[in-house]
Amino acid sequence: MSEAASPEQDVVVVTDSDAVRTIRINRPEAMNALDIPTKTALRDALRTAATDPAVRCVLLTGTGPRAFCVGQDLREHAALMRAGDPRLSTTVEEHYNPIALALATMPKPVVVAVNGVAAGAGLSLTLPCDIRLFAASASFTTAFTAIGLSADTGASWWLPRVVGLTAAKDLLLRPRSLPADQALELGLATEVVPDDELAARAAQVAAELAAGPTVAYAAVRNAVVHAATDDLAGSLANEARLMAETFATADHAGAFAAFLAKQRYTFEGR
Ligand code: T3D
After folding, report:
1. Residue 56 near residue 16 (C-beta atoms within 8 A)
2. 149 C-alpha vs ligand 1 centroid, how far in Å?
3. Which end of the chain is more exposed for a tag (fewer CB within 10 A), N or C?
């Protein structure tokens, strides 16, 4: 595992293990709340991971047992308000939106290990992730309207699609802390894992995905998001385009030949 470029004091720690890039929000003393340096580092780390061909799966998590991420750092928010700082009104477009887009559109799978509370934009971060593993002691809340704010970082787009319109409205209009087993029931969590097994389980799932057909995974991510807003004909056209792309991959040729020969194939991610 390499960590050379990101020492432990950084607000976002980036480490590589084979083709898995782990991006860890690292402000445990602030419940991994997002201040401007953290949002900037997270956005840049996600963009870099998205375009790095050596990275075939991203694992997002937070430091410490208490919080995954509690969203906007409200202490910073209060200070910016007091100072009349213009960054208050630019952070959604400058930070939260690019973070949400990078998570949703990167051409590789994203796993999230929710190691503690996920609140506000912290919860939003989990929604575009493909596999969402929650620690048994983790909890979640949309939080936004409790402090008189609308929903951001893609919450209004993802929540109805992940949990359905009725539950999404309920979660957004009546924010409250709910336990991990409720996340599982609602479809917010893919799996709930005992706290002391979360890191290992997340590493295992991420490694499995990193050893898979990356181009096909990217195509599936694209197709599913595309189909959420297009009609059937448009979605079928997009599927056809993506199938043509995957027909042309070395992984399709190799995996198909191995299937016919009843052999095992090692995906190369291209
Ligand atoms: O520019 C913009 O602001 C727009 C963007 C907005 C995006 C957003 O994310 S808005 C939503 C921001 N997040 C919240 O509103 C969450 C607020 N926090 C809570 O609802 C609760 O603290 C939790 C449900 C997350 C956890 O509850 P609990 O009972 O486990 O802990 P606690 O006692 O409430 O909090 C523990 C400490 O963390 C406490 O500090 P203290 O008193 O021990 O010094 C608390 O103030 C602090 N904390 C919790 N959330 C935040 C936070 N500090 C800074 N920012 C936070 N978001």
Report:
1. no
2. 14
3. N
- 125: region left, alpha or beta (phi > 0 left; psi from -120 to 50 alpha): alpha
Q: Is 51 exposed, middle or buried (0-12, 13-18, 19+ CB in 10 A)?
A: exposed
Band the pLDDT of 2: cuts 50, 70, 90: low
Model pLDDT, residue 8? 76
Residue 181: which residues within 8 A CB-CB, separation 6 or more? 136, 192
- Give the rounded distance of the alpha carbon of 85 from its chain centre: 29
Q: Whose CA is nearest to atom 43 of ligand 1?
A: 30
Q: Is the pLDDT of residue 249 over 60?
A: yes
Q: Is 117 exposed, middle or buried (0-12, 13-18, 19+ CB in 10 A)?
A: buried
Type of residue at 160: P
CB distance 141 to ligand 1 below 6 Å: yes
CA of 11 to the centre of ligand 1 (A): 17
Residue 5 has pLDDT above 60, yes or no: no
Q: CA–CA distance from 199 to each of 171, 196, 210 (Å)? A: 27, 7, 16
